[in-house]
Each structure stands twice: as C-alpha cells, then as structure tokens.
Amino acid sequence: MSPAGQNDWALVLGASSGFGEATAIELARVGFNVFGAHLDRKATLPHVEEVIGKIRAHGREAVFFNANAADAEKRKEILGQMEAKLKGSAPPAKVRVLFHSLAFGTLKPYVGGADEAVTQQQMEMTVDVMGHSLVYWAQELVGRGLMGAGGRIFAMTSSGGTRVIPSYGPVSAAKAVLESHIRQLAMELAPKGITANAIRAGVTDTPALRKIPGNEILLEGARRKNPHGRLTTPADVAAAVGVLVHPNTHWITGNVIGVDGGEDIVEVS
Hints:
This protein is α/β, with parallel strands linked by helices. The chain has seven helices and seven strands, in the order E-H-E-H-E-H-E-H-E-H-E-H-H-E. Helix 1 packs parallel to helix 2 (45-57). It starts with 7 loop residues before the first strand and ends in a 10-residue tail after the last strand.
C-alpha cells in the first residue's frame, strides 16, 4: 500500500543535491507530489531539471523554487505559492512530509587569527540556516493549515553534532540545535498527530561533506569503521525516509534515528 494519497505533497528543503535530491525522488516513487526548495546558480540549474524530470517520471507533480529557504521573505513567498496550489485543488491537498536538508554554513575554528576564527555573523548564520529555519517552516506549515494529522517532519543531523571535528564547530552547534528543535516539535505537535524525527546519516560523500577540511580522512575512517565496508549513500537515507513516512509510524517521534549501517556503534582503536 502506498503511504501517500493522491493529493499528498512533500516539501523538501535542499532538494537539488545530496540527501534532499535522493529523498525527493524516493518520495515521488512512493506516491508523493514534491515541492522542492533549493539555491542554485545558472551552472547547476540543468541538474535541477534532471531531478524534476525523475520526480515526474514517477507520475507525480514537481514544483521547485530556486530561493534561499532560510530567508524570511523568500519563505513567505514560497509558502504563499504553495498555499494557492494546495487550496486550489479539489479536494484541498496537504503537505504530509517536511524534509529539512539545508547544508549551508561556515567551517572555521572558534579560536585563531583575525581571518581564521569564526565571526559572530558566520556563527549566527550557520545555526539559523541549519537549525532554526526548521522551526520557522514548521510554524508556517501548521499555522497555515497546510500540514495536519498524519504529518511527518524529518531533519538531517550528523554524528558531528556530538563529536569534535576540526573546523566543524559552527555546524556541530547547528546540528545540536536542530536535534533540540526536533524534540520540542515532537512534543508540541503530538496532539496534532504530527511526528518529528532527526535522521543521523553515516558519513556520506555529498557536496556538503566535501567542503569540510580533511574530508578525505573522514571518508577513509568511515569506510574502515562501517560494518558493511562502505560509506552511507543518499539513497540509503532516502529509502529509510520512504519507509518512515508510512502512517503506521505514528508512534515514532522525538528521536534521532541512525541510518548508517551500524557505523556509529563501532569503536575503532
């Protein structure tokens, strides 16, 4: 049985690459129409069209917005267009899934020379984009009546949220904030029949990870550590989300769910 009804939509933030891309396509495969928010320059827009084409190949609608999903005005513009689309259908459609995979932040140490250490502006931007923005999207979706009972909220965290990695401090802080927001949303949205969970992927070779200084060491260490002898892939995460959107998962909320092939439980000496 498909977890999605004919009028069910998913909203994927960060839909043009990595986890967002794979999850948008997987959600279309299991029956969801897809709204996608992404921020791409002209050079990468052809790939966005490829993603949209794959969604439509599953017989689902795809409506994408090229805008900064962490900007308050852009968020309201996107939601206004979504609201018109959803409430204009018969019967009115709903957003059943919110998938947050915004990966834009500063990778700098906390302490260093004038041009080396993270600034207050960079720190606040990183935590806002990768952490706080989840709350603002959830507020609007629920407040506008676009998500209700049966809703599923997912946000991508990482093991870096509880570990120390050189230059990863601002992103680590954002992930810790994100997990806290998930717990709070799970509690507040439970009476409305909406769940909220964080997804902690194993080390995955994505465009975001390649920006981390020393990413080659992280990738090699994960290959040695993972019981399956390979890295996690965006498709692994997308497949898990495709299962977790099922109505029978209504009692799974407020968690950090590991999707890593057992990577996190292995200690390498």
